[in-house]
Amino acid sequence: MKSGVLEHDDQLIPYQVQHKRSVTRRIHLRTAQDGSLLIIAPRRMSQRVIQDALQERVHKVARFLVDAREKRMETPQPRYVAGEQHLFMGDLRLLEITFATARSSHVELTPTAIRISTNEASPGRIKSLLEKWYRARAAEHFSERMDLYAEKAPWVTGERPPIRLRKMKRTWGNCSAKGNITLNTRLMKAPPDCIDYVIAHELCHLQEMNHGRAFYSLQSELFPDWRSARSHLRAKAHVYLAD
Predict the structure, then answer these.
(1) Which domains does the chain have, with CATH numbers?
(2) How far is the C-alpha of 76 from the C-alpha of 242, rounded, in Å?
(3) How confident is the model at residue 101 (pLDDT cuts 50, 70, 90)?
(4) Does the pTM exceed 0.85?
């Protein structure tokens, strides 16, 4: 990867550039694993153009780095060990790990904890079990809430649209032109009203594929408090989308 340095007040901001074919027009700001600045740029954009564009907006770049680093401090990398806290539907639950002699593992939710019983308690194994458990809970809960909101949406006729589950890094859900709805399993970390908002949002796309006035009119009808839920997801995305 190519690299460069920006000047901001009395400090230097080093950065690295990653070119991607999927990026066609804009420069995107990201942070690398070590917290340094990573620039995602169109494949054919020159280093000079990137440098000039970043230096012109260096105050915004510096603000982005400060915000990104504060968010990283708020979301420490999970170690998947007993005593950690993990989110489930907006609440922090203690991670309890007990040793089982049987080969099969079991995950259950208690009023205060997520309890895992397993004969292998390595962090990798605990992470795998947790992710499978979140996915199973998402399949159950999303289906139940989709049924509820599909009944309230007069434009949804016949069988409710199928739900696809994915673990995604930057989006809560999407609806294809064919009417296939994909939801992020990480939504199970968010409060129930935020889950409902995303489901209602994608159901509205079955009628209105864009985000025009007609779409927001439908969304206000189906989920009146969508602004509050959207604001919460935007503010806490770095928490819910973290591994």
Answers:
(1) 2-74 (no CATH), 85-131 (no CATH), 134-240 (3.30.2010.10)
(2) 9
(3) confident
(4) no
